[in-house]
Each structure stands twice: as C-alpha cells, then as structure tokens.
Amino acid sequence: MPDPHIESEALADQRVIDLLRSHVAGDVLGDAGSRGEYARDASPYRQMPMAVVRPRHRDAVVALLQIASEHRLPLIPRAAGTSLAGQCVGSGIVVDMGAYQQRIIEFDPVSRRIKVEPGIVRDALNRHLASHRLQFAPDPSTTDRCQVGGMIGNNAWGLHAVSSGTTREHVQALELVLADGTIMNAAAVDAAGLGVVRSRDDREGRLYDAVIEPIDRHAAAIRSGYPSMRGIASNSGYALDALLRGQPWHVQGACFNLARLICGSEGTLAIVTAATLGLVEIPVAVRVCCLHFAGVTHALHTVPAILETGPAALELLDRAILRAAETHADHRGSSFWLRGDPGAVLLVEYAGASPDELEVRIRHLLRMHAPRTATVVGAGDIERVWALRRAALKMLMQAEGGLRAFTGIEDAAVPVDELADYYSEVQALLAARGLAHYAYGPVGMGSLHVRPEAGKGREYAPAEFESLLDSVAAIAVRHGGSFSCKHGDGRMRGKYLEAVLGSESLAAMRQVKTAFDPTGILNPGKILDCPPLTGDLLLQAPR
Ligand SMILES: Cc1cc2nc3c(=O)[nH]c(=O)nc-3n(C[C@H](O)[C@H](O)[C@H](O)COP(=O)(O)OP(=O)(O)OC[C@H]3O[C@@H](n4cnc5c(N)ncnc54)[C@H](O)[C@@H]3O)c2cc1C
C-alpha cells in the first residue's frame, strides 16, 4: 500500500538504477511501491529513497560502494528497519543487508564464538545456539526481528544489560567494507601491533592513524564530556570513549579494536559484512521478583539499593502501561503476577548457578521491600513477564488509528540516584503542557522511557514536538546524563550531541567520520549534520 504521506517521484533516476543493475549482484528496485516500503523505519520519519539495493553477498557490497563513492551516491544501510530515531530513513539508496546475508559462517562452541553474516535475526541465531546452552546476550525488545547488523549499528541492548552489557561488549571482530570499497577486518590489536598498522602507507594504516589522532588530541574533552565516562549508559555520538578506555591510552586496558567504534555508528562509518560474536552461557536458575509500589517515584528511589544486590535485569512498568496491557488482546493474561492496582512495579531478575543461590538473594530483596507487596515468578513463567515488558513499546505504537504515545524524549539516562529527581522534572514539564504520559524501562541502567500520550484527535505540531525534546534534553544534560542511551541519535537527536558531549568531542567525531567516509556517502544526515529535526516528520495521533 503506498503511503499517502510520502511524496514520490514516479520513478527513481533511471540512470542510477541501470548503473547499479549492471554492477551489483542482487536486487535493484526503483519502482515507487518498493521504495515506499523502505521509506520508513519505526521512527516518525518518512522519506522516499532514490532506490533500494539488496546485495546478494559481500562482493556485491564492495561493488556497490565502489560505484557509490565514484558517483557520490548516498547509501542508507538497513537491517530490519526497527530503528526509532530515523536511522534508516533518507533520500539516498537504501541497502537492505538482511535480504540475503543471513548465514552462520563459523561456530565454535568451545571458544564460545560465532561468525555470522549481518542479516541473521537475533532470535534465529539464539535458536541455533540453544542446544549448546549458549546465547548472544544483548536482548533488545525487537529480538524476534532485529538483525545482528542493525544491533551493531545501534549498539543495541535490552533487559539484561545491567548484567551482560551492550552489543559492543560481545562483538569481537567485524569484516567491514569501507566507503571506497576496501575490505577491512576490524579486530583486537595490541599496542605493538598498533604501531605496525599505523606505520603502513595504505588505506588501513592511514585510517587507524586518522582515528587515533583526534582521540589523542581531544582525550581530556572526551573524558570529561562523555556521560559513559561517568558510568552512565550512552549511545550518544561515536564511541570514542570506548576506545579511550583501552590501549594505547591505558596499557593495562583492552586491546585497541575498531569494532568497538563501529558499534553504535549507525551505518555512517562502514558497512558490516560479517561479525564475530562472543557467546555466553544460558543461566541455569532464574527468578523474577515483582515489587509493587504506590508510584513511579517511590520505585525509582529504591533502584540504587536494588542494584547493590546484583540483579540480572531491573525494569520498571507504571500503572498506565499495566492498564494498557490489560486491555491489549495479546497480553491480557500476562499480568498474572500483579496484585491489586499498584502505581508502578519493578521487575527484578536474579540469575545464577543454582536455585539455592537465588533463594538467599530473593529473601534479602523481599526483606528490603517489606511490608510492600511482592510476588516471585519461577522459571516456567518468566518469559511471560518479559514478553509483557518487551511488548510495552509495541503496544504504545499500535493503538487503533494511530500512535498511543510518541517516541523522542524516552531515551535519556541519568545517574541512578538522580532518576527520581529527573522524573519529577520531566513529569512537571509534561503536566504543564497538558500531556499525560507512560513511564517504563531499564531503570537499572539509569534510563526511564517516558512517552507522552498522543491523545485522541489531538494535533501535535512538529514545533511543539521539537520544543519538548529541547526541554527534556536540557533536563538530562543538567543531571549529567545522555539523551540517547539506547535508541541512538539517528536524525532525531544529533542536534543535542554538542550539549551532551561538548564541542571538542564533537570536533573529534567529525574527524573520525571524515577519516572513514571522506565523501560523506554513508548514511548522511545521521548522528552528524542532521537535517532539521522536524523535517519529514509524521506525528499521527489517533482520530
Ligand atoms: C518496539 C520497539 C522496541 C525496541 N526496543 C529496543 C530495545 O530494547 N533496545 C534497543 O537497543 N533498541 C530497541 N529498539 C530499537 C531497535 O529495534 C534496535 O536498535 C535494533 O537492534 C535495530 O535492529 P534492526 O535490525 O532493525 O536495524 P535497523 O533499524 O535496520 O538499523 C539500525 C542501524 O544500523 C545500521 N545498519 C544496519 N545494518 C548495517 C550493516 N550491515 N552495516 C552497517 N550498518 C548497518 C543502519 O543504518 C541503522 O543506522 C526498539 C524498537 C522498537 C520498534
């Protein structure tokens, strides 16, 4: 079905289509219907791409990049297209990396390592690993459809990030195709090896040099500017901080690895054609404690103490979400663990080697929480609890006739002991604007997803949307936080990077972008130099 909100030319530039068809193995689509299918991701942005290419294999990607760099054709790498900040929306050529490239290339259960093509879906990958009791740990809520390439692009993380980290911590090496078509392996290099690579007078040697130099020069600004340097979850900007924590800046630190930088770079630095991933064991024993609270603020005050108990996951759901779930056909029975009508619940998961080990920790937590209500869910039913949590956003995006709640301000993270204050300020701001909201999310990571309700029939002007983002970004920055802790910058939150990271860090990021992509063909207008925030924005409330 063509999207009436997207203006389309009848046909993409035929010369571009012919050129691509004659050089790139795979599908090259130029008709309005196909392009319309790729004109949106899960964000409120809509824009018709010039064409869509589905490369059949790595060499097709190389050919595509050679042509694109010669003719300055902008490319938009895409996996499942579930990004929330417009990462996959633009007027260039969409490169669907998931259509064909879904193979497992190598798997070694002993070293707990797997090499895959980027189009493999996370759930499919983990189904393959389940009989070995292994898994690829990062678990975004879109696990049933998101692909490894997209998880790398966004440095995705999910419910278990408090215990198992983000995608970056599980990516060991990446095969990349650079903007000019050069194939490069990004993997761990120790300090001695780094000296050798940097002395090479080739594309790779010059690239390493050009990435290290600005980090070196702006190290102090990166240390003081990046929220993650203060322990706050952040996917704001390029992960220069992740490199700065290791060699050559810290002799005892992890080896230098450009793969760490590619994670979270949103397709703007290189295209990933293979990924070597570290795997972890599936825990033997798991229980979830559902702690009931009178309200969100009460719950947020307890987060720092609960973190001390070493949970595997720590998530919040507020009353508005719980009520939405009760009325949603798919989730009606999923809140079986709920007692009464609490203002908020915290879901605290413990995982370990034996049920006895968990008992001790659960008893301790319940003592801390008493006399308030709590229920404990055992292994057989835990998936139902998390399915409800994972579905929260989907429910909010799927109200009949339009959105139930807006994406945009939900991705801030602040120090956990400031969560309650942060929430009061955001709550007051929304109330002053007459906006009801939903609140949920990974509070154990310092993030509370606050989503303003769309409001039936309410006009939501783009300028109003931008001004709300401006205000909440300012609150997050005042608390020393990030504004994109998980869902990325895309074209929606690039505007705030200077406020979050500082101008010097931003200058270093620009140099890194130029080193990778001198002609700016890789996902232009994402993270850096974004188009106006309200351009191509479609805010559709239910009628
Ligand atoms: C309902 C809902 C819930 C969500 N929950 C979470 C969550 O819990 N945690 C979370 O982190 N995110 C979440 N997201 C955002 C998103 O689903 C994740 O970030 C997901 O990992 C993106 O995967 P994808 O396959 O859809 O990638 P896409 O959206 O297609 O792409 C993501 C980025 O990667 C780039 N990219 C894709 N493939 C390549 C490649 N081969 N080489 C280089 N760059 C590439 C793209 O250009 C883009 O910038 C949610 C989204 C929705 C709609």
SSE layout and pairings?
Layout: H1 14-23, E1 26-29, H2 32-37, E2 51-55, H3 58-71, E3 75-78, E4 93-96, E5 104-108, E6 113-116, H4 122-130, E7 134-135, H5 148-154, H6 161-164, E8 171-177, E9 183-186, E10 188-189, H7 191-199, H8 203-217, H9 219-225, H10 240-244, E11 256-257, H11 258-262, E12 271-278, E13 280-281, E14 285-293, H12 296-307, E15 313-318, H13 319-326, E16 344-352, H14 355-369, E17 374-377, H15 379-397, H16 419-432, E18 437-441, E19 449-452, H17 462-478, H18 497-501, H19 503-516
Helix pairs in contact: 7-8, 8-19, 12-16, 16-17
What does this protein structure show overall?
The protein is 36% helix and 17% strand. With 543 residues, the chain is an alpha+beta fold. The protein has a domain at 285-393: Alpha-Beta Plaits (2-Layer Sandwich), CATH 3.30.70. A 6-stranded antiparallel β-sheet has the order 17-14-16-15-18-19, sandwiched between helices. The site of flavin-adenine dinucleotide has 36 residues, from strand 3, helix 5, strand 12 and helix 15. Flavin-adenine dinucleotide (FAD) is lined by residues 41-42, 77-84, 87-88, 97, 118, 140-142, 146-147, 149-151, 153-154, 156-158, 266-267, 271-272, 393-394, 486-487, 523.
